[in-house]
Design a protein that fits this description.
With about 300 residues, the protein is α/β, with parallel strands linked by helices. The protein contains 11 helices and 10 strands.
């Protein structure tokens, strides 16, 4: 579907990747090969697909990558030992532990064990704190990708009412913190609504920009938005379908229901999804340049 209403993340991701390629070249000129290490515990199919895509993106952009595959019987202590090795490895600039983890491993413990300078997900409490205070080291991938989409398509956020459905540590909370900062592509009035909010539609109908990140297939319908809303659909959900795969991917927004009312909308797939990996690549380069003491961002933009 080719429509001017669509906010195509694939196009924006290509723009970000071009920027990253230039940054990689500049690092190479200083004798630095940026490297990302991904740790995957278990055989979750979705996680395996996502990790594979990260590896392909690294290869395409000139970032060295390794994937450490561990069985789902891995203990917390064994995983901590591997992370400690990666923390000490000066050739390694980024560490990403793919979530979710098996139930015997505490995610909070693992997140805290990663060297904050190598935390390319922006999950470590130190980096979250820097984000909240407006002095980020790196930005959380999906929220940063959303801002890149808004920036690319010149969608104004200042003074707008941004309503976020969902309060996860991965999307909802960090995105709210980014949008309220005193800076360009922010300065918004932000409402975060969630499963305990009474009458969600009362809030969603006030939104100038609506971000759906609740993890419920086609949850948002046309009667929940006003005319002219910009909709960012973060959800990726599988629903049964009569096709070869037996399923199709849909977002948290009922696309067909809202399309006639929205000003702009991200499709699923092809909207926010590609941006998450693109911003991960950028974070890896940011981490590598900082650890190596090389200032390249301004030169590469």
């Amino acid at each position: 579907m080719d429509d001017p209403k669509l906010l195509k993340g694939k196009i924006v991701a290509q723009h970000v990747n071009q920027r990253v390629e230039k940054m990689v070249q500049l690092l190479n000129e200083h004798g630095v090969q940026p490297k990302l290490s991904v740790v995957l515990v278990g055989d979750d199919p979705a996680s395996k697909v996502y990790v594979k895509r990260k590896g392909k993106s690294c290869e395409k952009l000139g970032i060295k990558s390794e994937t450490i595959q561990l069985p789902d019987t891995t203990t917390e202590g064994e995983l901590l030992d591997i992370i400690e090795q990666l923390n000490k490895d000066t050739d390694n600039h980024g560490i990403l532990v793919q979530l979710p983890l098996p139930k015997q491993i505490r995610e909070e413990v693992i997140i805290r064990s990663v060297n904050p300078l190598k935390d390319v997900d922006c999950f470590h409490p130190q980096n979250v704190g820097l984000l909240v205070t407006g002095n980020p080291y790196v930005l959380p991938c999906t929220p940063a990708g959303i801002l890149e989409i808004l920036k690319y398509y010149e969608i104004e956020t200042e003074g707008k009412h941004a309503v976020i459905i969902g309060r996860s540590n991965i999307v909802g909370k960090p995105l709210a913190n980014l949008l309220v900062q005193k800076q360009k592509m922010a300065n918004a009035t932000v409402s975060v609504i969630h499963s305990r909010t009474k009458d969600l539609a009362e809030y969603t109908r006030q939104a100038d920009i609506l971000i759906a990140a609740i993890g419920k297939a086609e949850f948002v319908h046309s009667d929940m938005i006003k005319d002219g809303t910009v909709v960012i659909d973060v959800g990726i959900n599988r629903v049964d379908a009569d096709n070869e795969k037996g399923y199709r991917l849909v977002g948290d927004v009922n696309f067909d229901s809202v399309f006639s009312k929205v000003a702009r909308i991200t499709p699923v797939p092809g909207g926010v999804g590609p941006m998450t990996i693109a911003m991960l690549m950028q974070n890896t380069i940011t981490a590598a340049s900082f650890q190596e003491g090389i200032t390249i961002e301004k030169t590469a933009n």
